[in-house]
Amino acid sequence: EVVRQTDLLPSQVEEALSELAALGFVTCDSFDGLRALLVPSNKRPTLGRNQGKRRRKTGLASIEFAGRWSLIRKQVSEESNGAQTAPRDAAVEKFARVLLRRYGVVFRKLLERESLAVTWYELGRIYRRLEARGEIRGGYFIAGVSGEQFALPEAIGLLRSIRKTGASYELITLSAADPLNLQGILTPGARIAAFTTNRVLFCNGLPVGALEGREIRRLSENSVADSDMEATLRVGKLRPSLRPYYK
User: Fold this and answer.
1) Contact 187, 193 (CB under 8 A)
2) Which contiguous run of DSSP H or E holds residue 80?
3) Tens digit of each residue's pLDDT (9 = 90 or more) over 158-173
């Protein structure tokens, strides 16, 4: 039917079907069509010469008896999907760069802290592309974290400098809504809800205490005194004008 309606030579139809099937534009309703295309053209029975023969002798390598061919109508959907995919790719790349600026080093587990519906698979494609361009570095930068890690070049230098710096034992408090609240994600223990009223106390970069609601609890065994922990966490919540009056 295809030969008759197109006015093409049987060899031209076979070649066209082979190319269209390879590109994914047409399909056959049986595997015999694919098997027939795998047979070299010089050994394949030619269309129109097997009408008088039984199928059991010619069907194994003949496109003519392979089944029905149909068009896969996906061009319209591909165009519409392409129009929708381009803005999403741009948005995912922007989000990937924001994560790099926020954390310096990005890996899969950090996505537990984020609420946007972006998968690590999408981010990984962006980061590998940026790594191939030389904009970022890929490697193993943070111990205890499995999987791929990607970092800004300046973040690697800061990590090395911090490793060489001695401990200062300075107490730093942060709001639990801060992106640096990675308790329960990078460190053991329960997570601290990301509310502005909650606070996390750090000593030498490690979380040592937290204020949740009105309760203070230790996050690890440390040498920070209870009085210092309470004063730092509770005073930090007060307005600067009220802090001198806290006792």
Assistant:
1) no
2) helix 75-103
3) 888 877 877 777 888 8
